[in-house]
Design brief:
The complex is a heterodimer of chains A (about 325) and B (about 200).
Chain A (H helix, E strand, L loop, with lengths): L6 E7 L3 H11 L3 E8 L2 E10 L8 E5 L13 E9 L2 H13 L8 E3 L2 E7 L5 E6 L25 E9 L2 H12 L1 E7 L2 E6 L7 E6 L13 E8 L2 H13 L4 E6 L3 E9 L2 E10 L14 E2 L8 H6 L13
Chain B lengths: L7 E4 L8 E4 L10 H7 L5 E4 L3 E3 L2 E3 L11 H21 L8 E5 L1 H12 L6 E5 L17 E7 L7 H13 L3 E7 L7 H13 L2
Parallel strand pairs in B: 2-3, 2-6, 6-7, 7-8, 8-9
Antiparallel strand pairs in B: 1-3, 4-5
The chains are: A alpha/beta (about 325), B alpha/beta (about 200).
């Protein structure tokens, strides 16, 4: 029975695709490796921001559903997106960078043996940066060669991500008995879980919240969190496992760049299991990636119509310029 | 004689002299604040009333106008409806409207504050999590005897420090006994904040 490896990707909701593109690439220095549309709703962009080559564990994606109202943070949802930076020095550099760019952030603090800070984007989306100074386990992604961030400070990938629930015991069961997580630490209402001693790239923080109103999933909130599996064979084994655990699930879904299974561990929270491959550079070159609007074959015939309904951005490659 | 036509929720409790009226945040429901009400007083009966406005699929207590501001006619009309429904429901459940503490969050807290300032609600006590001033109050009523606890986050993107300051000034000018709790975060409710509201409630029983 193969194991889950760590975080694969996270998908969130933004109010504005060109603005999130600017934030992710210019402020955070990530690589827009794929600009495509939500296959179920072609008026919605689906943007993938990763490391240089789109390695699993470095991927944050966004939908910009038209007309969706602003979300409200609360319980029963995924509530803070984690990223990793190489070390404490890098974290201090980011704190200064956020101050310079007037990005809202908190002072550096310490928790679970690592320094961290919180920051927010223009949608009030909630993020944290965690220092890998004392980290162990999974390495990070590859430095994006055209990143505006110096390599020694660059974000290495996704990090410990918050899930806030009022059903702690049920979530614990799903994490430990189904998914293979181990509860390794606790601070007040926060419980740290880790997959197979794989470190920050394989951790979730479960927040026990009994009283707050529920999260409302509008823009500025997270849609789902995905965990990585080796390949399709592993995925099929895990689909069986999820079904035996009796959780609501999607069954096999082909997402083209990876294959997936979605399931709900409990109210309001959506998890996904996704394969490490095939990856983002099968259908276009590195230079085209993120510039050209990528459409799956069955939508290609409607390209003109689809493009007419989207606000264009990043239409000329600035890579290497 | 008007009828009860609100969507409301009721949970009874042994402390019938201290019931709550719960007013939810945008997108919430009549049940949403029950865990908070129970945290403040687990023995209280609690009524939750759902706003009857729906904008972009989110429940609210009053409309926005075309420019995205607050529709003040809607605010006045809907608040009258809400307060009337509250009295009818309370009486039907054999609870005295004057005994109620209103407990509101965000949109619900805004409407509760507006009621204290510009209407004649029967409730005399208010616990308001992250309220804002919906308009300037220029004529101050005499609400001596009323008590309100309000909270605010310094970095709240929805309610500025100035707006919150104005709200507390208006309430004080109306002779409401105001207690304020601040935290350095945003529109979220913290544990300290909940504990503080509970302590204030217990002191003011």
């Amino acid at each position: 029975m193969t194991e889950l490896i760590g975080l694969h990707h996270l998908t969130a909701i933004t109010s504005n695709a060109p603005k999130i593109f600017k934030f992710m690439t210019e402020v955070l220095g990530l690589h827009l490796i794929k600009k495509t549309v939500n296959q179920d709703d072609v008026s919605t962009y689906h943007l993938y921001f990763t490391d240089d080559l789109g390695k699993a564990g470095t991927d944050i994606t966004f939908f910009d559903f038209p007309g969706i109202p602003k979300g409200k943070q609360g319980k029963n949802g995924i509530t803070r997106i984690g990223f990793r930076v190489p070390n404490d020095l890098a974290l201090e550099w980011w704190a200064r960078r956020f101050a310079d760019l007037r990005i809202e952030h908190t002072p550096i603090a310490s928790r679970f043996g690592a320094k961290y800070l919180y920051f927010y984007d223009f949608d009030d989306q909630q993020y944290q940066l965690v220092s890998d100074e004392y980290n162990h386990g999974l390495g990070g992604g590859d430095y994006y060669r055209y990143s505006p961030i110096p390599e020694e400070y660059a974000i290495v990938g996704l990090g410990p991500t918050f899930v806030t629930v009022n059903y702690l015991d049920k979530m614990d069961k799903v994490l430990t008995e189904l998914m293979g997580f181990e509860k390794i630490d606790r601070k007040d209402d926060l419980y740290l879980y880790e997959l197979h001693q794989n470190g920050h790239g394989a951790q979730v923080i479960i927040e026990d919240s009994q009283i707050m109103p529920d999260q409302f999933q509008g823009y500025g909130t997270v849609h789902h969190l995905a965990f990585a599996l080796e390949d399709e064979d592993a995925l099929h084994e895990w689909i069986k496992k999820v079904k035996e655990f009796n959780l609501p699930d999607s069954g096999f879904v082909d997402r083209f760049y990876f294959k997936s299974e979605y399931f709900r561990p409990g109210n309001g929270v959506l998890f996904e299991l996704a394969t490490n491959g095939p990856g983002f550079l099968l259908d276009e070159t590195y230079e085209e990636a993120g510039v050209h609007l990528e459409l799956p074959p069955f939508l290609e015939a409607k390209r003109a119509e689809i493009e007419a309904n989207l606000v264009p951005f990043n239409t000329e490659s600035r890579k290497g310029k | 004689m008007t009828e009860i036509n609100a969507n409301y929720f009721f949970q009874d409790g042994p402390d019938r002299k201290h019931p709550f009226l719960m007013l939810h945040g945008t997108g919430g429901t009549e049940r949403e604040l029950l865990p908070m009400a129970q945290f403040v007083n687990a023995d209280s009966p609690a009524i939750g009333i759902r706003g009857r406005i729906s904008e972009q699929g989110m429940t609210r207590y009053f409309l926005h106008n075309e420019e995205g501001g607050f529709d003040l006619d809607s605010l006045s009309k809907e608040t009258d409806w809400l307060l009337e429904q509250f009295e009818l429901i309370a009486k039907k459940l054999k609870l005295k409207p004057e005994d109620f503490t209103v407990l509101g969050y965000s949109n619900g807290a805004n409407v509760a504050a507006y009621s204290l300032l510009e209407k004649q609600p029967k409730f005399k006590k208010a616990i308001l999590y992250h309220p804002m001033a919906l308009k300037a109050t220029d004529k101050f009523l005499d609400k001596s005897g009323d008590k309100a606890w309000l909270s605010h986050g310094d970095k709240d993107p929805i309610c500025s420090i100035d707006n919150f300051g104005a709200l507390t000034s208006f309430l004080e000018a109306s002779k409401v006994d105001v207690t304020v709790f601040n935290h350095p975060e945003k529109h979220n409710i913290t544990r300290d904040e909940m504990v503080n509201s509970k302590k204030w409630y217990e002191k003011n029983l």
